[in-house]
Amino acid sequence: MWMVRSDGGQLIETFLEKNIVSIGWGEVGSLSSFTSRDQVINKVKETWPEYKPMKSVVIGSQLNKIFELIKVGDSVITYDPSKRIYHVGKIIGEYQFDPNAKDATAHKRKVKWEGDIERDKLSVPTKSTLGSTLSIFEISGSAEKEIISQISGKPSEPKNLQNFVETSTEDLDADVITDTKDIFEEMKSKAKEFIKDKVIALDWDEMQQIIAGTLRAMGYKTRISPHGSDRGKDIVASPDGLGLEQPRIVVEVKHRPNSQMGSQEIRSFLGGRHKDDKGLYVSTGGFTKDAKYEADRASIPLTLMDIDDLVDLIIENYEDLDMETRTLLPLTRVYWPS
Fold first, then answer.
1. Where do the DSSP E strands lie in 75-183?
2. What is the H or E stretch that residue 73 is in?
3. Which segments in the chain show pLDDT lower than 50?
4. pTM recorded for the entire structure
5. Domain coordinates in residue numbering, the chain
């Protein structure tokens, strides 16, 4: 089983609609004439002579996987971070190269998608295994068994946390460990996903509180609407705390992890706004394409924030959060050599 990452979720709709998995680096051209990994790496070095040797090795190894190592019949998994869902399928086509691709779809394989798994249904060790920053990597046998059992509808017993370190070490791809920077990026990627798990587990009231607390850490004063009809505003943030001074940020919070907000929800939110308002719409389930289009043409400045954006904002301002807000999401600082 292979993980093929979807460029931070940006390619997930392309993967599903076109029934493919793919990676970029299209400038190297087709790999069809190569007969070894070393030839692919040398082509990368030739294409980008400014790259450090180890970076060329890592990129060349990624390309060689989609070209040569992945076989028809292999299982494949990819991740949608906005919905926190893993999509699982089978490789059904040989390597293809698209010379006209303008995104990370130059080198591709055809896929038959077979099922989905919510991230929350997987064990901690398997979540860790799936958190590598590599574009393509092979999944360990233990993680693969858990994923297959979930897809088949016969969940296996969760792995014991005592095996967490052992399993994580076993799953490391040799291409990952190039230097301490790569290890650090790997840790950051996994840490963010685990923080997202904790944020998703908050209830609706706690979600409002942590968003309001983050806005206060950014220098605003906030008011949280009482329960009941809030007329499209869960939080109002402003310099004076009353919403009389500008900027006045009106915040709508939708804590539905597996439900994207659509254009109708965005129109409804915008319908109650004053011309001088600034809008912030937070949806832990993400947004549809139509919703993003509606936000782009809104008559007031409007920011859409999914779970990834929200966690980034919390981490960026965590040191300035008040104690009450930190209690909702306790995090530990980790020091790393510069």
1. 75-80, 85-91, 96-97, 107-118, 136-138
2. none
3. 161-177
4. 0.71
5. 2-182, 204-328
